[in-house]
C-alpha cells in the first residue's frame, strides 16, 4: 500500500508516560480494552517533559486529583490511557491545537467527551456539557482499531478547519514513525467518530419522547442517543478529513459496526460541511433520525455504504460526491470497495405521530460506481438502494456505471417499494450499463402503492421526462473524470435551479451532478479534486 503525500512524514521515535486522572472519570462499557498499562500518578506541574520546545503545550484538563496532560516528545503530543480511554468520560472542555513541523496528537485508546447515560435510571442529560474543540490544521491519530471519538448527548464537537488548514482524524499507521510494520494505513485502523444527539428517532416511542426516557443504544458501542428536539446542536465538523476508520461487527453481530462518522439523532443545529471520508470499513456517514444537514461531502473507497440514512431522518443535503474503487491490502491484494452510494432506509423502529419515515431533500449528487463486489461482504456496487418505506426528493443527480455484469445502479427491496411514489428524482441523469436490479422491471412485489402496480421502473425514474437515462459510456464528465461536462450533448435534461427549495440551506447550482466543470476555482471543486488525488494514492 502506498502512502498519500498528505501523510508522508519523517520517522521519530516515541515514548509514552502520562499523568493520572481523578474525579472526572466515570466507567462505561464501550469498546474492547486494548489499552496499555495505566500510570495513575498525578502531575500537578503542567510539565510536558520529554519535549525540546518550551513553546509546545499538549492538551490538558483538570480532575479532582490534579492536572492530566499529554506529553510532548519533541514532535508529537502523546496521550495514553491515563488521559483518554473507554473507561474515562471527560467532562472538561478540551482543545487540540495544530502542532508545528507535522506533529500529531496521538491516542492509544478512545476519546469520550461528555457523560453518557440512560435517563430511565438516575441519569440526567447535561444541558451544558463539555466541548471538544479541534483547531485548523490539527491532526488526531489513533493507534487502536477499537479507539473512537464519542460525543455524548449534551456535549459538543467543534472541529472546524479551513480550506488551507483542514483538520485530520486518521490512523497512526499513516505516519511511518508510528508504523512498525511499514505497510501503511488501512480501513478499520481506528473506530471513527460517533455523535449522540437529542433529536427525534423512530427507535423510541412517542411516550418515551414525551417522558424524556428515549435512550437508544448506538451501534458498535454501548452509548445512548435520542430525545425530542430536532433543532438540537451537537456542534459542527467542517473542513475535515476522516480516514481509515470504522470496524467490523461488535457484540451485536452483523450490522453492529462502527462507521467513519455516525450521527445519532443529531439535530439541525449542527452542520457537517466540507468533509472527506476515505477508506472506512463500514459506512461513510450513517444517520439515525434527527434533522441534521450535510454539505460538500466526498466519500471515497468506503467498504459499505457511502451514505446510510435511517430511522426517520428529516434533514437536507447538497453537494455529495461518491466514488467506489479499489485499494491494496497489507497482504498486497487488490480489493473492491463500496456497496451502495446511498443505503436509504425510511424506518428503523416504528413511525408515529411524532416521526415519519426518513424524508430528506438532497441536491447535486455524483455517484461513480464499479462492477466489483465489496471486500466487506461481497455485496455489489450500486448507486442507490431503497428500503423500509423511504421517502425523498432528489435534484440534479448524476449516477454512472460503465460495466454491469454483476450489479445495477438502483435496487429496491420489497419494503423499499412501500412508498416508492414518494421517492422522486428531478432533473437527474442515469448513465448505467444496468439500470435496475429487478427481474421484470416493474413494481409488482405486492407492497408497492396501488398507483404504481405494474408501472415500469423506467417510467418511475423518468418522472414524466424530468430525468434522463442514457446508457453506459455517455459523455457526462469533463477530462478530469469527476466534474460534469456542462457542454455535453448527451445530457439533454435541464438542471433544476433549486429556487423552490429552502434558500437558507440550498445554494443555486444549475448543473447536473455534484461538481461543475465551469467552477474550477471554487473551494468545493478544489476539495473534490484534492480528495480524489489523495485517494488514488492508496
UniProtKB/TrEMBL annotation:
PROSITE patterns: PROKAR_LIPOPROTEIN
Keywords, in A-Z order: Signal
Coiled coil regions in record: none
Span list, region Disordered: 32-55
Organism from which the protein derives: Pseudoalteromonas translucida (strain TAC 125)
Lineage: Bacteria, Pseudomonadati, Pseudomonadota, Gammaproteobacteria, Alteromonadales
Signal sequence region: 1-15
Protein name from the UniProt record: Lipoprotein
Amino acid at each position: 500500500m502506498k502512502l498519500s503525500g498528505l501523510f508522508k512524514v519523517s520517522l521519530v521515535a516515541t515514548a509514552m508516560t502520562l499523568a493520572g486522572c481523578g474525579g472526572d472519570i466515570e466507567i462505561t462499557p464501550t469498546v474492547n480494552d486494548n489499552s496499555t498499562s495505566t500510570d495513575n500518578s498525578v502531575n500537578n506541574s503542567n510539565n510536558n517533559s520529554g519535549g525540546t520546545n518550551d513553546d509546545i503545550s499538549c492538551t490538558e484538563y483538570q480532575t479532582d486529583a490534579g492536572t492530566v496532560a499529554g506529553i510532548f516528545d519533541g514532535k508529537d503530543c502523546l496521550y495514553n490511557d491515563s488521559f483518554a480511554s473507554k473507561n474515562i468520560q471527560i467532562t472538561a472542555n478540551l482543545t487540540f491545537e495544530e502542532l508545528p513541523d507535522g506533529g500529531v496528537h496521538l491516542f492509544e485508546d478512545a476519546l469520550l467527551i461528555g457523560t453518557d447515560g440512560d435517563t430511565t435510571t438516575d441519569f440526567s442529560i447535561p444541558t451544558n456539557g463539555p466541548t471538544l474543540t479541534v483547531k485548523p490544521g490539527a491532526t488526531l491519530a489513533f493507534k487502536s482499531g477499537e479507539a473512537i471519538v464519542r460525543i455524548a448527548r449534551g456535549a459538543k464537537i467543534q472541529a472546524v478547519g479551513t480550506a488551507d488548514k483542514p483538520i485530520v482524524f486518521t490512523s497512526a499507521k499513516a505516519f511511518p514513525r508510528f508504523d512498525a510494520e511499514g505497510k501503511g494505513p488501512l480501513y478499520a485502523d481506528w473506530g471513527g467518530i460517533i455523535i449522540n444527539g437529542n433529536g427525534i428517532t423512530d427507535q423510541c416511542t412517542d411516550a418515551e419522547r414525551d417522558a424524556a426516557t428515549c435512550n437508544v443504544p448506538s451501534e458498535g458501542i454501548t452509548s445512548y442517543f435520542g430525545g425530542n428536539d430536532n433543532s438540537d446542536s451537537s456542534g459542527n465538523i467542517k473542513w475535515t478529513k476522516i480516514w481509515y476508520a470504522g470496524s467490523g461487527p461488535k457484540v451485536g453481530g452483523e450490522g453492529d459496526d462502527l462507521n467513519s462518522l455516525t450521527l445519532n439523532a443529531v439535530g439541525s443545529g449542527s452542520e457537517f460541511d466540507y468533509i472527506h471520508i476515505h477508506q472506512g470499513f463500514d459506512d461513510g456517514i450513517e444517520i439515525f433520525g434527527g434533522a441534521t444537514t450535510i454539505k460538500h461531502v466526498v466519500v471515497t473507497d468506503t467498504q459499505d455504504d457511502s451514505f446510510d440514512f435511517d430511522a426517520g431522518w428529516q434533514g437536507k443535503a447538497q453537494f455529495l460526491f461518491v466514488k467506489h474503487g479499489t485499494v491494496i491490502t497489507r497482504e498486497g491484494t487488490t480489493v473492491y470497495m463500496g456497496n451502495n452510494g446511498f443505503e436509504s432506509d425510511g424506518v428503523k423502529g416504528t413511525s408515529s405521530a411524532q416521526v415519519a419515515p426518513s424524508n430528506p431533500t438532497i441536491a447535486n449528487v455524483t455517484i461513480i460506481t464499479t462492477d466489483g463486489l465489496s471486500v466487506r461482504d461481497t455485496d455489489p456496487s450500486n448507486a442507490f438502494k431503497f428500503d423500509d418505506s423511504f421517502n425523498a426528493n432528489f435534484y440534479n443527480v448524476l449516477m454512472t456505471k460503465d460495466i454491469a455484469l454483476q450489479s445495477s445502479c438502483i435496487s429496491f427491496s420489497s419494503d423499499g417499494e412501500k412508498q416508492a411514489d414518494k421517492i422522486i428524482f428531478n432533473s437527474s441523469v442515469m448513465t448505467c450499463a444496468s439500470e435496475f436490479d429487478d427481474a421484470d422491471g416493474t413494481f409488482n412485489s405486492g407492497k408497492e402503492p396501488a398507483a404504481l402496480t405494474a408501472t415500469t421502473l423506467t417510467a418511475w425514474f423518468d418522472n414524466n421526462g424530468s430525468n434522463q437515462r442514457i446508457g453506459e459510456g455517455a459523455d457526462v464528465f469533463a477530462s478530469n473524470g469527476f466534474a460534469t461536462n456542462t457542454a455535453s450533448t448527451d445530457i439533454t435534461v435541464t438542471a433544476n435551479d433549486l429556487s423552490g427549495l429552502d434558500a437558507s440551506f440550498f445554494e443555486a447550482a444549475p448543473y447536473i451532478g455534484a461538481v461543475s466543470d465551469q467552477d474550477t476555482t471554487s473551494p468545493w471543486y478544489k476539495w473534490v479534486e484534492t480528495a480524489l488525488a489523495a485517494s488514488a494514492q492508496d
